[in-house]
Design goal:
Organism: Neobacillus bataviensis
InterPro entries: Ac_transferase_dom_sf (IPR001227), Acyl_transferase_dom (IPR014043), Acyl_Trfase/lysoPLipase (IPR016035), Mal-CoA-ACP_Trans/PKS_FabD (IPR050858), Malonyl_CoA-ACP_transAc (IPR024925), Malonyl_transacylase_ACP-bd (IPR016036)
CATH topology of the largest domain: Malonyl-Coenzyme A Acyl Carrier Protein, domain 2
CATH class of the largest domain: Alpha Beta
Strand order of the largest sheet: 2-1-9-10
Number of helices: 11
Order of helices and strands: EHHEHHEHEEHEHEEHHEHEH
CATH superfamily of the largest domain: Malonyl-Coenzyme A Acyl Carrier Protein, domain 2
Strand content: 15-25%
EC number: 2.3.1.39
Largest sheet: 4 strands, parallel
GO molecular function: [acyl-carrier-protein] S-malonyltransferase activity
Number of strands: 10
Family: Belongs to the fabD family.
């Protein structure tokens, strides 16, 4: 059995999600010098969403590893990539947290209101790109964003631009359009300036080559080289997350079990739709003990 730990991105957050990881919260608060919030009001800001997702992902993954549930690959979606980098051994918890803190604050400052993300289902990447190109206006920008599945594509930009893109997408036969709970235009050229800042910031941080192969957001490729991974962490904010390619590469490399770190089950659903023969465990739904039991049971069956 080859296991993939997956780490969700923004949109997965749930108020109160940090209540069972107080040790990590206190440790993070000492590092950044601020009280960390995870209530509904706080989650209107990308700052607290990103911090919460990072902390929860690292905490649960480390608990699983302590229980001898160890991954052969790590794949994080957007902010989840930083938790993946910590688990793969590329960045220390402290250095990754500082990067996440800077990233989140700058994203919040750059686009405090009027921008976000949406998803179009039922169209190909090429068709969504056409809808986005038709909808784009310099005053109300919108860009093609994350490729979550063959026919589930995110768009990013101004709310006006997103709504316009949705209108064209429906004309082209889109099955569904949805606004995401993401208050920033992530994974688009609107974040290019921040990606350059992050490149400079991460160049000053000590890095290690990955102990566990890391799936790159920007290219979908499997990486172990510390410099290529650091580049992916810095630049992914301005480029689409190619989640569909990331999971495809894992499966081609023998992965047959995907374990999704809390919160939520979105990534597991996407993998199951694309790769029906793989096994999924959603830690949020079954808990740590059942996750450990299932892995042990499946390993014995495979032997």
């Amino acid at each position: 059995m080859k296991i993939v730990f997956t780490f969700p991105g923004q949109g997965a957050q749930i108020p109160g999600m940090l209540q069972d990881v107080p040790h990590y919260v206190k440790k993070a608060e000492r590092i950044i010098g601020a009280s960390i919030l995870d209530d509904e009001k706080a989650f209107q800001s990308t700052i607290w969403i990103q911090l919460a997702l990072f902390l929860k992902g690292v905490a649960v993954a480390e608990r699983l590893i302590e229980k001898n549930v160890c991954p052969q690959f790590v794949a994080g979606h957007s902010i989840g990539a930083f938790a993946a980098a910590v688990i793969s051994g590329v960045l220390t918890f402290e250095d990754a947290l500082k990067m996440v803190w800077h990233r989140a604050k700058r994203m919040d400052e750059a686009y405090p209101e009027g921008y976000g993300m949406g998803v179009i289902c039922g169209l190909t990447e090429r068709e969504v790109k056409k809808a986005v190109d038709l909808a784009y206006h310099v005053q109300f920008p919108v860009h093609l964003s994350n490729i979550n599945a063959e026919q589930q594509i995110a768009v990013s930009g101004s709310w006006q631009g997103i709504e316009k893109a949705f209108q064209f997408a429906k004309q082209f036969g889109a099955q569904k359009t949805t606004i995401l709970q993401v208050p920033i235009p992530s994974h688009s050229p609107l974040m290019a300036e921040l990606s350059e800042e992050l490149l400079d910031l991460i160049s000053k941080v000590p890095l290690n080559d990955a102990n566990i192969p890391y799936l790159a957001n920007r290219t979908g490729r499997m990486l172990s080289d510390k410099n290529k991974i650091s580049e992916d962490l810095a630049l992914n904010v301005a480029f689409p997350v190619r989640w569909n390619d990331m999971t495809e590469v894992c499966v081609e490399s023998g992965a047959d079990c995907f374990i999704e770190m809390p919160p939520g089950h979105v990534l597991s659903n996407l993998v199951k739709q694309a790769h029906e023969t793989t096994r999924q465990i959603v830690v949020d739904e079954v808990g740590l003990e059942a996750t450990q039991y299932l892995i042990k049971k499946w390993k014995e069956q495979d032997e």
